[in-house]
Structures are given as structure tokens and as C-alpha cells.
Amino acid sequence: MVQLLWKQQQWRAAVPALVVLLVRHRYMDESAPWAARQGDLERAAQILRNSFSVDAVVAPDADTTPASVRPKASVRDYARLFSPQYRRRTTLAGIVGACQSVQYYAIGFALPVIIVTFLELGTLSSIVGPLIFNFAFGVTGGFLGAYLTGRLGSWKLSTTGFSVTLTALIVLGIVGQPQGTWKLGAVGLLLGLFVFFHAGGPGAQGMTMATLSYPTSLRGTGSGFGQAVLRIGSTISLLVFPVLSDAFGTGVYFFVALAPGLLT
């Protein structure tokens, strides 16, 4: 049973990842400032035209010779992330990224296990349930978060999402093992709200906050740091959640609640 659930999780993650990879390859381009720094002004102008509908042209007298010396990333760039100018941004992006990763891999990624163990449903439910949760709550929450990012900003969306997921986790811990139809429905709704507000808030913002926090010259290093923090959070969650769930049962929700609790 455990091997079957593990394989289901891998396929569930691999197929959407392939779709995203193809879409990004088709529609996403490098940033115009990055291309300009490489000395490719024609490409920078083309990116502005294609991505932002800006009627950009390269001046006839512009020096279009590619830069002979291009800055290379080094260990010193990581030190710049913690310089007085960027220290607060780095700290915020790191905490948001790590906490959202911990709560997602504990609950969202482990939905099949939760359905089989805590909700005591069958194998078929462990397959269909995560699909329903992710499409009905995860996809809609993600689209709503993308729509509201420009209006509310990353910090408000992250804080709102963490507040709701914190509340949902505490209530799930109080309810415990659901007995009866109405409790089972209530737990399902709480899990759906968790997935929805995580996807619309800290889930998306934790992946992009590090990228948006730095100028072009430091963005690659900042994004790498953000991804490293995400992986640390996910590794801790994947290692600790099974141990805590075996020891405390549904009381593990209270431990997971510590992650969003740090941000609210």
C-alpha cells in the first residue's frame, strides 16, 4: 500500500510539471535587462515588444557589440543577499518559502496518506480525492492568487493565506479522527480550504518572492537561495511528518500549524 501511494504521488507531480515546462518554453522569455547586460540589445528590444507590447527599437548609433567581459556569479553574491540593503528581503523571502514548503509537503503532498489513514477511506479515494482537491481548490486558488497579486501584493496574500491555513490546521487538530458523515464533510472542507488558500497565498508567493526581491544582477543568486530554502523545508517536512503522524495521529496538525504560525 505504501509503495502504491508513493508511486501515485510521483505521477501526480510529474505530469503537471511536464505541462508547466512546455508552457514556459513556449511563452516565457528572458528578462530584457538581462539580455541588455549581455550586450544583446536587439534581443532585449524584441523581448520588450513581445512580452510587454512596448515599441522598443535599438538606436542606430547604439553599440550592439556583445560584452566581452560578462560578470560571473560567485560566492560573494550570496554575501550580498545578507548585506544591509537586501538583508530584510532575504530574511522575509526565506521564512515565507521555508514555512509554506513545510506545510505543503506535510498536508498537500501527503493527501493520499491522510485520506487512507486519518479519514479511513479506500485506495480509490486516495487517488480520486487528491485530484478533486487540487483541481477544485488548488487550481482555483492559484489562479485567484495570480489575479490578486498585482492588486494586493505578495505580503498581504502570503499573510492572508497563512492565517487561513493556520486556522484550518488548528481546527483539524481539534476535530481529530472524523466520526460520522458531517464530521467527515467538515474535515474535507477544511482540507479544501487549506489547499485553496495555500495555493492562492504562500504557495505561489513563496516561489516568486525571492525572484522579485532583487535586481537583475542578483536575481539568479536570490532565486537559487530561495529554492534552496524551499528544499530544506520540504525535506524536513517529508522526514518529520510521517514520524509525528505515527506518534500523535491527527495531533500532527498542531505541529504543522507551527509553520504558518510563525508568519501570523
Write the layout of secondary structure elements.
Elements: H1 2-27, H2 32-37, H3 41-52, H4 75-81, H5 87-108, H6 111-117, H7 123-152, H8 154-175, H9 181-212, H10 216-248, H11 252-256, H12 258-261
Helix pairs in contact: 4-10, 5-9, 5-10, 6-7, 7-8, 7-9, 8-9, 9-10
Structure description:
- The chain is mainly alpha-helical.
- The protein has 2 domains: 1-57, no CATH class; 78-264, MFS general substrate transporter like domains (Growth Hormone, Chain: A, Up-down Bundle).
- The chain is built from 12 helices and no strands.
- Helix 5 (87-108) runs parallel beside helix 10 and helix 7 packs antiparallel against helix 8 (154-175).
- The longest helix has 33 residues, at 216-248.
- The model has no long low-confidence stretch (mean pLDDT 80).
